[in-house]
């Protein structure tokens, strides 16, 4: 993260079938994560492989709701699906979580 302090976390979740998870991961990195790296204070991408599905979770960190809204639009909970999401995801997510960060201690970088 840059020198600004993150006060907001925006959390997106999407699930794929196991047979397309390995193809979705690089697509999500390029089409979803790369734009966030340029705008958010920080971003993390997680993947959990389970029986029958793989879940991807993206957490982006923002200085405040206004900064997040400049990227996501006036309703920061609104989903902006990637062009190929319908091809990969089991169902299209209907929203994201927007959480205030109350405490954070991260390991060194």
Number of strands: 4
Task: Please give the radius of gyration in angstroms.
Answer: 14 Å
CATH architecture: 2-Layer Sandwich
Helical amount among residues, as a percent range? 25-40%
Per CATH, the class reads Alpha Beta
Structural description of this entry:
There is one protein chain. Helices cover 31% and strands 29% of the residues. With 109 residues, the chain is an alpha+beta fold. The chain has one domain: Alpha-Beta Plaits (2-Layer Sandwich), CATH 3.30.70. The protein has a four-stranded antiparallel β-sheet. It is globular.
Q: What is shown here, in short?
A:
By secondary structure, this protein is an alpha+beta fold. The protein is 31% helix and 29% strand. The protein has helices at residues 18-39, 65-72, 85-88, and strands spanning 8-16, 42-50, 53-62, 97-100.
SSE topology:
Blueprint: E1 8-16, H1 18-39, E2 42-50, E3 53-62, H2 65-72, H3 85-88, E4 97-100
Antiparallel strand pairs: 1-3, 1-4, 2-3
Structure characteristics:
about 30% strand, Alpha-Beta Plaits, about 110 residues, 4 strands, alpha+beta, single chain, Antibiotic biosynthesis monooxygenase family protein, about 30% helix, globular, four-stranded antiparallel sheet
